[in-house]
Amino acid sequence: MRYETKITARYAETDQMGIIHHSVYAVWYEAARTEFIKISGITYSQLEAKGIMLPLTELGCKYLLPVHYEDEVTIETRITRISFAKVTFGYRVLLNGNVMNEGFTSHGFVDSKTFKPLNIKKVFPEFYEKLKSIRED
Amino acid sequence: MRYETKITARYAETDQMGIIHHSVYAVWYEAARTEFIKISGITYSQLEAKGIMLPLTELGCKYLLPVHYEDEVTIETRITRISFAKVTFGYRVLLNGNVMNEGFTSHGFVDSKTFKPLNIKKVFPEFYEKLKSIRED
Amino acid sequence: MRYETKITARYAETDQMGIIHHSVYAVWYEAARTEFIKISGITYSQLEAKGIMLPLTELGCKYLLPVHYEDEVTIETRITRISFAKVTFGYRVLLNGNVMNEGFTSHGFVDSKTFKPLNIKKVFPEFYEKLKSIRED
Amino acid sequence: MRYETKITARYAETDQMGIIHHSVYAVWYEAARTEFIKISGITYSQLEAKGIMLPLTELGCKYLLPVHYEDEVTIETRITRISFAKVTFGYRVLLNGNVMNEGFTSHGFVDSKTFKPLNIKKVFPEFYEKLKSIRED
Fold first, then answer.
1. D50 touching B, CB under 8 A?
2. Which of A11, C79, C97, D6: CA 20 to 30 A from C85?
3. What local confidence, expressed as pLDDT, does residue C99 receive?
4. Which residues are CB-neighbours of A120 under 8 A, at least 6 positions away?
5. Which residue of C has its CA nearest to B30?
């Protein structure tokens, strides 16, 4: 399953090159991921309340075309890999039919108090099954 | 007492006007405040570990001259007011003898678990006395 | 006239206090202002293309209640003052009927090449008249 | 050649997990890159003034250990690849002898007006030769 999030580029997100600063895409991915996770029927806030966090283990990002202030981009999010320990999301930033940027983030499932890895299938099986069911290469 | 912190303007902090974005000054004030608080002999991290937080209640900021990428500014910080409930810091951002920006932040002393106001003189008298002793209009 | 913009608080906008960082409100004000200016029939991007910029001269911000990750706030924007040289916007951040934060930004009208003040009534009278007509104390 | 930059983690850079937000590392890489480029005898600001920009084409980042507020990290920067069209920088974020994070950024050399690729060896041969001479796998 692919999920689409609309984001309007903010002025604060531009840099003196006149384009959206490269560090911003990770923030947009996250906003898109937040909406995507809601599809599972649980918000990320609720997940944290349950003592589960998903810190990043890896980020990759390709900058294909520059995005500008006030551009209304679409972030397309999907889950590309899921295991008991880790989940990987893929993203594409689209504008007028063009792919402006694409990337991925990998996340470990960890205990929010100890920051130690946890087995998501054991700790929260419904969430694991839901994510697995919407996975798409 | 006035304390000086050096900061080099980052590229990510610029916007498409080619100047440092106005939201960044609050972040620089905070970096300067972190160093300033250390003078009291306790770091802000230790303060939080003691269950005390200083969330902002008010921010004021005047933009006098634009700051640019790679400019090495000096942030001059001082405490202008201190009570059992609240502390106010004043800031000036200097470059080559010019005041580029000036502002203030007010903070309440609160309990880090309940977010309720606390009396800093009761909870941590040494810290209160130290801040009071370095206050300067 | 008052204009309402919806914003969902991002994870990247939180800090270790577990609340939205105080520097973020200036960014939200700006996103709200961008939408508000569009009402005048011209986007801020078009304004910059015409050689007009509105850098901040002053910012004021009061933090009344903390906003959290995934909160969907409403930013209410209005113009409180307008002259040939300057415009002031007022903002209120609302959540569930509560005012979480309120503030203002003042902006000078300047030439985008020289950064020198310009008389907006002379340079772009329709824009000036439009802003004036929607002003509200 | 490897170059070391010291950075103190800012409060604004934390998130509600209590760690430095993952989008911040790209900003730290950039601050380190700015200092590294200065070694070549030319600042990045001067490079832009000459009509040359280095927008990112790719970013990769591995999060090995969490960094916290007030941590004083060292960013180790080097050039891993250089061609007429592109340069790649490698980074390691170190704290107390541990590698907390590592990554790379690739940049195209482009004309600052047209954003079109340019041949750095033709346009600014001394800069190209300097970067090449300090390259290290």
1. no
2. A11
3. 98
4. A52, A84, A85, A87, A109, A127, A128
5. C23
At A9 the three-state DSSP class reads coil
Q: State the DSSP string of B38-67.
A: HTTTS-HHHHHHTTEE--EEEEEEEE-S--
> How many CB contacts within 8 angstroms connect chain A with chain D?
60
| Alpha-carbon gap: D1 to the closest alpha carbon of chain B (Å) | 22
- What domain count does chain B have? 1
Structure tokens belonging to residue D102: 């590592």
Q: Is B15 known to be catalytic?
A: yes
Per this entry, what is the length of chain B? 137
CA distance linking residue B28 with residue B43, whole number of Å: 17
**What pLDDT was estimated at residue B53?**
95
Do the Cβ atoms of D14 and C12 come within 8 Å?
no
Point out the residues of chain C with pLDDT beneath 70: none
Cα(D33)–Cα(D39) distance, rounded to whole angstroms?
Answer: 10
Distance from CA of B10 to the nearest CA of A (A): 10
Q: How far apart are CA B13 and CA B11, in angstroms?
A: 5
Residue D23 forms contact with A (CB below 8 Å): yes
- Chain-chain contact of B44 with D8 (C-beta, under 8 angstroms): no
Dihedrals phi, psi of D12, to nearest 5 degrees = -60, -20
The answer to whether A9 touches A67, Cβ cutoff 8 Å, is yes
Q: Give pLDDT, residue C39.
A: 83
Going from the C-alpha of D23 to that of each of A100, B91, B121, C133, the distances in angstroms are 19, 28, 38, 42
CA–centroid distance for B114 within its chain: 23
A63–D contact, CB cutoff 8 A: yes
Contact A113, D17 (CB under 8 A): no
Question: Residue D42: pLDDT band by 50, 70, 90 thresholds?
Answer: confident
Can you name the residues that pair with A92 across neighbouring β-strands? A76, A102
What CATH number is associated with residue D38? Answer: 3.10.129.10
* pLDDT in the model for residue D90: 98
Q: Say if residues C76 and C91 touch (Cβ distance below 8 Å).
A: yes
For C56, the domain range is 3-133
> Given this model, what pLDDT does residue D86 score?
97
CB spacing of A69 vs B16 below 8 angstroms: yes
Catalytic residues of A: 15
C-alpha–C-alpha distance, residues B81 and B88, integer Å = 5
Give yes or no for B26 touching C (CB within 8 A).
yes
pLDDT reported for residue B39: 83
Partner A contacted by C31 (CB < 8 A): yes
d(CA C131, CA A97): 35
The pLDDT, as a whole number, for residue C68 is: 97
Place of tokens 């002793």: B133
Low-confidence ranges of chain A (pLDDT < 50): none
Tell me the one-letter amino acid at D73: V
Task: Decide if D137 contacts D81 (C-beta within 8 A).
Answer: no
Q: Which chains touch D (3 or more CB pairs under 8 A)?
A: A, B, C
Chain D residues touching C15 at Cβ < 8 A: 11-12, 14-16
